[in-house]
Amino acid sequence: MKYRKLGASDLDVSEISLGSWLTYGVGVPRDNAVACVDRAFDLGINFIDTANVYGRGAAETFLGEVLAARPRASYVLATKVYFPMSPTDQGLSRAQIMKQVDASLKRLRVDHVDLYQCHRYDPATPLEETMRALSDVVRQGKARYIGFSEWSSGQIENAFAVAGTERFVSSQPQYSLLWRKPEESVIPLCASKGVSQIVWSPLAQGVLTGKYAPGAAQPAGSRASSETMGQTMQSWLTPRVLDAVQKLKPVAAEAGCTLSQFALAWVLREPNVASAIVGASRPEQLEENTRASGLVIDPELFRKAETIVADAGRGA
């Protein structure tokens, strides 16, 4: 496993990180989830990403239980705040940030997280209020650093313009061969500000593994076949996308790796990406995905892949 510096922080994070959206505490049986976390550590993954809203606290609770026996310095822990936790608990007001960070720490069974992220931008709260609250979270020792997810370049610029506050070190956008929108302005801006990308859905929720064939039934046990986990990926399961993805398989074979490894290596070719977040319901998935770390692939093969999916992806 290779490691990269997370923005202007002193955190070194594994190039492949373990996420918990739709999986731990929610869609994956507990024994499988425990096995995945244990295997992640065996494989050198040190970066665990979650959020308070995943399972309305269930993912954080699960991670708090399984990480409790491990030395706190052995992993980098990130969580998020913004989405509704109750009919009255939502957003990035000072009151919500202070309430939700304490609740997250309690569920995670730690006294601090390494990274506390705004899960989305909150247009209902003044940005200065949000930034000052996040700064207090850091200065009170409840988080070491702060980040954001899916903010526009204008919102990022405005946050850096708030004087006397802590600075973001991470951005968490969706980014993959099929979704390249962050390249337009977010990645260049972040690179100039000391902000790294930790990207979600680098495999387009599993579509870039190539296991979903056009016109075929969804494989048993796959994310797409899961009532809990499959709803959010339907927009990727179109004939146009699936046809294009099948055409990527020979390119990956030419590179000497699996399609999922190729897709992850494509994301990691971008210097501003510190880590690619993967989900896993079985330890074998992590074993395959972590082999993407450090892969050296001919850039011409990446360009060939980009051409193949150019008309199929969104945000390219």
What do these coordinates show?
This protein has 316 residues and is α/β, with parallel strands linked by helices. It has a single domain (3-309), classed as NADP-dependent oxidoreductase domain (TIM Barrel), CATH 3.20.20. It is 36% helix and 14% strand. The chain has ten helices and ten strands. The strands form two sheets. It has an eight-stranded parallel beta barrel, surrounded by five helices. Strands 1-2 form a two-stranded antiparallel ribbon. The longest helix has 17 residues, at 239-255.
Write the layout of secondary structure elements.
Blueprint: E1 3-5, E2 12-14, E3 16-19, H1 30-42, E4 47-49, H2 58-67, E5 76-81, H3 94-108, E6 113-118, H4 127-139, E7 143-148, H5 153-160, E8 168-171, H6 186-193, E9 196-199, H7 239-255, H8 259-268, E10 273-278, H9 283-290, H10 299-309
Parallel strand pairs: 3-4, 3-10, 4-5, 5-6, 6-7, 7-8, 8-9, 9-10
Antiparallel strand pairs: 1-2
Helix pairs in contact: 1-9, 2-3, 3-4, 7-8, 7-10
